[in-house]
Write a structure and sequence with these properties.
Elements: E1 20-21, E2 24-28, E3 33-38, E4 44-49, E5 59-61, E6 64-68, E7 74-81, E8 88-93
Antiparallel strand pairs: 1-2, 2-3, 3-4, 5-6, 6-7, 7-8
Protein backbone atom coordinates (compact mmCIF):
# COMPACT_ATOMS: atom_id res chain seq x y z
CA UNK A 1 0.00 0.00 0.00
CA UNK A 2 1.27 3.47 -0.87
CA UNK A 3 -0.12 6.59 0.71
CA UNK A 4 0.21 9.87 -1.14
CA UNK A 5 -0.88 13.05 0.57
CA UNK A 6 -2.16 15.77 -1.73
CA UNK A 7 -1.92 18.66 0.70
CA UNK A 8 0.93 19.80 2.90
CA UNK A 9 0.67 17.96 6.19
CA UNK A 10 3.84 18.87 8.03
CA UNK A 11 5.44 22.16 8.96
CA UNK A 12 9.02 21.16 8.07
CA UNK A 13 11.00 18.30 6.47
CA UNK A 14 10.75 14.81 7.96
CA UNK A 15 13.89 12.98 9.11
CA UNK A 16 13.93 9.38 10.28
CA UNK A 17 11.57 6.54 9.53
CA UNK A 18 7.83 6.44 10.13
CA UNK A 19 6.68 3.26 11.91
CA UNK A 20 3.32 1.77 11.01
CA UNK A 21 1.39 0.25 13.93
CA UNK A 22 -2.25 -0.86 13.90
CA UNK A 23 -3.01 1.12 10.75
CA UNK A 24 -1.45 4.33 12.06
CA UNK A 25 1.77 6.06 11.02
CA UNK A 26 3.85 8.05 13.53
CA UNK A 27 6.57 10.54 12.61
CA UNK A 28 8.16 13.82 13.62
CA UNK A 29 9.35 16.85 11.67
CA UNK A 30 12.19 19.33 11.96
CA UNK A 31 9.83 21.98 13.38
CA UNK A 32 9.42 19.84 16.52
CA UNK A 33 5.98 18.39 15.83
CA UNK A 34 4.98 14.74 16.26
CA UNK A 35 2.13 13.41 14.11
CA UNK A 36 -0.09 10.35 13.99
CA UNK A 37 -2.02 9.76 10.78
CA UNK A 38 -4.29 7.00 9.52
CA UNK A 39 -2.43 4.82 7.02
CA UNK A 40 -5.61 4.15 5.06
CA UNK A 41 -6.45 7.70 4.06
CA UNK A 42 -3.82 10.07 5.52
CA UNK A 43 -6.29 11.61 7.98
CA UNK A 44 -4.55 13.37 10.87
CA UNK A 45 -5.41 11.63 14.15
CA UNK A 46 -3.38 14.04 16.27
CA UNK A 47 -0.37 16.34 16.22
CA UNK A 48 1.68 17.50 19.19
CA UNK A 49 4.46 20.08 19.55
CA UNK A 50 7.26 18.39 21.51
CA UNK A 51 10.09 20.91 21.25
CA UNK A 52 12.99 21.42 18.90
CA UNK A 53 13.38 19.53 15.67
CA UNK A 54 12.78 15.80 15.68
CA UNK A 55 15.54 13.90 13.88
CA UNK A 56 14.69 10.50 15.36
CA UNK A 57 12.51 7.57 14.44
CA UNK A 58 9.79 7.05 17.07
CA UNK A 59 9.94 3.82 19.08
CA UNK A 60 6.60 2.25 19.99
CA UNK A 61 6.27 -0.09 22.95
CA UNK A 62 3.18 -1.22 24.85
CA UNK A 63 0.97 1.43 23.23
CA UNK A 64 3.28 4.35 23.98
CA UNK A 65 5.49 6.37 21.67
CA UNK A 66 9.02 7.23 22.76
CA UNK A 67 10.91 9.90 20.85
CA UNK A 68 13.75 12.31 21.42
CA UNK A 69 14.02 15.90 20.22
CA UNK A 70 17.12 17.83 19.18
CA UNK A 71 17.06 19.84 22.43
CA UNK A 72 17.97 16.66 24.34
CA UNK A 73 14.50 15.93 25.70
CA UNK A 74 12.95 12.46 25.59
CA UNK A 75 9.16 12.22 25.36
CA UNK A 76 6.74 9.42 26.16
CA UNK A 77 3.37 9.87 24.51
CA UNK A 78 0.33 7.62 24.70
CA UNK A 79 -3.00 7.65 22.93
CA UNK A 80 -6.00 8.79 24.94
CA UNK A 81 -9.65 8.68 23.96
CA UNK A 82 -11.69 11.82 24.53
CA UNK A 83 -14.56 11.02 26.89
CA UNK A 84 -17.58 9.88 24.91
CA UNK A 85 -15.93 10.66 21.58
CA UNK A 86 -14.10 8.64 18.98
CA UNK A 87 -11.37 11.23 18.50
CA UNK A 88 -7.97 10.12 19.70
CA UNK A 89 -5.62 12.59 21.33
CA UNK A 90 -2.03 12.51 22.56
CA UNK A 91 -1.27 12.31 26.24
CA UNK A 92 2.20 12.98 27.71
CA UNK A 93 3.79 10.89 30.43
CA UNK A 94 6.67 11.91 32.68
CA UNK A 95 9.91 9.98 32.24
Amino acid sequence: MTLFLRQPLVRAPIWGSSPLVDGRVVFGDKAGWLYMIAAEDGRVIWELKIGDNVNATPAIWEGRIYIGAFNGSLHCIGAAQSAGKKKQTAERYAL
